[in-house]
Amino acid sequence: MDSSLAIAAVGVQSAKGTPNATPPYQHGLLGGAIINAEVEQGVDPQTSGTRMPTVAYRESIVPTVEFSTRMHKASVGLYLYALLGSKAVTGSEGAFTHVFTPGTALPYLTVAAKRDATEMQKVADVIFGEGEISWEGAKPLELSLKGQGTTLTPTFTPWVAGTLDETYLDSFLVPVGGTFEVSAAGEAAAAEIIAGSISINNGTEPVMSSGARTPSDVNVGHFEAEVSFTVRVANFNMWRQILTGTATGTTLACARYGAFKVTFKENCAADGASLKIEAPRVAFTTSLPDVDPGGGMVELELSGIALSAVSGETVADAVKATLANAVASY
Amino acid sequence: MKIAVKEKVSVTLREGGSVIERDIEAGEFDAVSEADQIVARHLLKLGLATAAPVKAQAEKVRK
């Protein structure tokens, strides 16, 4: 077999227990096994007439999904929806704007994998628990995803190609042409970002009921969004803002809230797709960088937790993603 | 609760274990049910709608 021959196909399900027979979003991968089975088993601790163990017990088999991919302009919307859970779309005739925000639950998806020519597996009722968007310099964005499902099909045939096949396309999202704003305290402002990552963790766990070795469901837990930015700086104002609340502050204070807003563009398409990710309330921390006898520019590593701000009945979204592309609906 | 929707919008929300799906045309949206009010608040939050004009609501009160 050849490990470079690998394709994933993913589609949202109408409901749990109703697999998507033909997952439409198909693309190549940067890494990961795509589909796996996490088996928990061990020696059954019984005494016997021999010193050697004789019986193994298999407690659970959890179907898992794990891969990393470019952020292709169409399928990225599906993954943002899968990770966040709520969506609103406006627009028409090939120009749509999708806004994804955290919901209290997540959609179920079907994930299919094709390895080499004949190895095909799929998992149904997948909930994506973890996702990380990362970039460095002008390199294309990378999206890493982890999920768990309830129903594993270890082999199937035939492979039905996704109707939205992005496998051979270079229309993925890149930082080039994008805009980058971050502040350690207060409203987001332009910053020279060298690299960054935005991680979402939905606190999922498989529900292991007594009647089966496979999960009956995947439970969605607490939402967490962590961000990290490497910023080229001309001074330590951000460090002081985090510690004191202002760039010139001298009194150490309680937690201060900053913000970020980053925009990415479709590769080689001036009027193509775009993705904006923003968080209005981020609690950042940072450390001053080490000195270096060899010299070089000074960078600050900002680490933050994106938080929600609640005012009356209005719950501001900790993270909001706005995707403009030609997909009418996810 | 009435809101003025700026343009046609399709919304899918997951709240409390249930899925709320609405296709709403541009114009006034009268959110009567609890689910509709959740949708209305969501659209206001995203800036895809504004609160219905105060004048219109005041006229309704007078009637």
Explained architecture:
The complex is a heterodimer of chains A (330) and B (63). Helix content of chain A is 5%, strand content 51%. Chain A has 330 residues and is mainly β. The longest helix of chain A has 10 residues, at 75-84. Chain B is an alpha+beta fold and 63 residues long. Helices cover 35% and strands 40% of the residues of chain B. Chain B has helices at residues 34-46, 54-62, and strands spanning 2-5, 9-15, 18-24, 27-30, 49-51. Chain B is globular, with a radius of gyration of 12 Å. The interface between A and B is medium-sized, with 22 and 20 residues. Strand 5 (85-92) of chain A pairs antiparallel with strand 2 (9-15) of chain B, so a sheet runs across the interface.
Give the overall shape of chain A, derived from the CA principal axes. Answer: globular
Oligomer: heterodimer
Estimated helix fraction of chain A: under 10%
Shape designation of chain B: globular
How much strand of chain A?
over 45%
The main pleated sheet of chain B reads as: 3 strands, antiparallel
Indicate the radius of gyration of chain A in whole angstroms.
22 Å
Radius of gyration of chain B: 12 Å
Strand content of chain B: 35-45%
Amino-to-carboxy terminus distance of chain B: 17 Å
Structural class of chain B: alpha+beta
Average pLDDT value of chain B? 85
Order of strands side by side in the largest beta sheet of chain B?
Answer: 4-1-5
Order of helices and strands of chain A: EEEEHEEEEEEEEEEEEHEEEEEE
Low-pLDDT windows of residues of chain A: none
Please identify the structural class of chain A as seen in this structure: mainly beta
Distance between the termini of chain A: 34 Å
How many H/I helices of chain B? 2
Mean pLDDT of chain A: 95
Largest sheet of chain A: 18 strands, mixed
Number of strands of chain A: 22
